[in-house]
Write a structure and sequence with these properties.
384 residues; Neuraminidase; 5-stranded mixed beta sheet; 3 helices
Amino acid sequence: MKLNILVALLLAPLSALHAAEPLLEKTEVFPPKFNGIARYRIPGIVVTTKGTVLAYCEARKNNAKDWGEIEVHLRRSTDGGKTWLPSQHIAHTATRIEGNPHTKTGGDREQTVNNPVAIVDRQTGAIEFLYCVNYARCFSMRSTDDGATWSTPVDITASFEPFRKHYDWKVIATGPGHGIQMKGGRLVVPVWLAYGAAGSHAPSAAGTIFSDDHGATWKAGDIAFPNAGEFRSPNETMLAPLSDGRVMLVARSSSKMNRKLASISADGATGWSEPKFHDQLWEPTCMASIMAHPSGVLLFSNPHTLPRDKDGVEIPGGFGKRENLSIKLSRDDGKTWPVNKTLETGRSAYSDLSVLPDGSVLCLYERSDSITCARFNLEWLIQP
């Protein structure tokens, strides 16, 4: 018996003999009222080719509203998110574009810099960074030193014009969260646009823009999620590459089904499949994140709640509570999500996912009135 055990141990893979212990750590990146900011919201996170972590978000200076005097702030970490360098104000820090249609007094002097999205170009090592101003114009800038400095922003609003043949948009927005690079080098950024009253975020539709020249120019893809039939105001999309090279796009909506919408494209821009509601991806009407892990699985983060009345009955097209942020795992390119684990039981909302060189996962998320970074490994996620 002892000999059999010894042989089994000798033949066992090293990974099994040295399986990692479950890991979960949390660090506040943007604490409440940090640097005098009223509310930090709309987080995004990427890891550069050198392993530097870039955590960014909207810094809403005077209140928590979507419109107002809003900046984009960034913090960098060179130790995997354990400690963070001082906050930087980036994105549209020079010439201002003012105009807030939602504030009657003083709105004409406010600049809303919104919906930041970063994409790591693994072929060049650069970081492309897209954002919008007043939900009306879109800009792109680049960093070649791991986010320490940034180029002068370039106006790329013209790349949204082809969408007008479908929807005469009044509002445009990138992401939020992060974009991706496909195997061939194409950069893809999820976007949404609204075509109601000036400044209104509904009704809306969603798709992508893409670049085949490392961010020098951007083009519009097809509308992936129309505002039609049972699909009600899709917006705030997120995307991930699949194992066969295709791209999955997942959208928030206010549809009666209370489930995330999903569609797939071979090139991340055109030929999107018919959108379908995914029964396992609950929709509390909140932005979520999706990410491809190097191990071959997909990860998804979102508050795992549904809108319910006082008797616990699901309310079609309602608003669920923004709490119980959970991480899901799929082993079959998003067809099923058998693993679901709570990361934050209390108030928690928007989130974004990235992965470190050692395979551990970072989730930057809204936690009560702060933005927190959780670091965990797959062992933590799959343990009972």
